[in-house]
Amino acid sequence: MITQMGNIKIEIQRRKIKNMNIYIKPPKGDVLVTVPMRISDEEVFRFLKKKEQWILKNHEKMKNQKTFQQKEISIEQRKWLENKIIEYAMKWEPVMGVHCTGFMIRNMKTRWGSCSIHSKKIRINLQLAAKPEECIEYVLVHELCHLLEPSHNERFYYFMDLYLPDWENRKKKLNV
After folding, report:
1. Where in the numbering of this chain does the YgjP-like metallopeptidase domain appear (predicted)?
2. pLDDT in tens, 110-156
């Protein structure tokens, strides 16, 4: 089923799930709402009305988010990236007093890295293989800081400043 919220098209899919979920998908901010089979259309529309401001805000945010140019990364570049991640993890984990349970490298459209707080796994964008080494270190430290503080709040930036005082310069180089 498809519905509209202003000029935003919303796709609604019924699934065998327990809760309603909203996904804002890159790169254009397409909205997908997954709904349990037992919930009526009326309940779905009440839910959407309640979440309207959140949907509008996050749709706009995703639309304006820069997506990465996907460059062809060679096997050698990928191996180099893997080695750098291991090298920096071995350097920073003992210093920061954290331990990540695993790393995954994959092409990501809108992020350089992400961290799953519960599983303590870190995902790194394959496109980092085409960036300067100091940018890889920045992304890894950033994701490891999330093991200390999940949110991008004052405490998180305190840790970034503590462990990598020049992180802002590295971030600028990364996003050039």
Report:
1. 77-175
2. 899 999 999 999 999 999 999 999 999 999 999 999 999 999 999 99
Picking from 56, 46, 146, the residue whose alpha carbon sits closest to that of residue 96 is 146
How much is the pTM?
Answer: 0.67
What distances in angstroms separate CA 11 from CA 23, 35, 68, 162, 166, one per listed residue? 10, 11, 25, 44, 43
How far, in Å, CA of 125 to CA of 155, rounded?
25
Please name each of the domains of the chain with its CATH number: 2-64 (no CATH), 75-174 (3.30.2010.10)
Q: Are 167 and 140 in contact (CB under 8 A)?
A: no
Please report the DSSP string for 33-89 in residue order: EEEETTS-HHHHHHHHHHTHHHHHHHHHHHHHSPPPP-----HHHHHHHHHHHHHHH
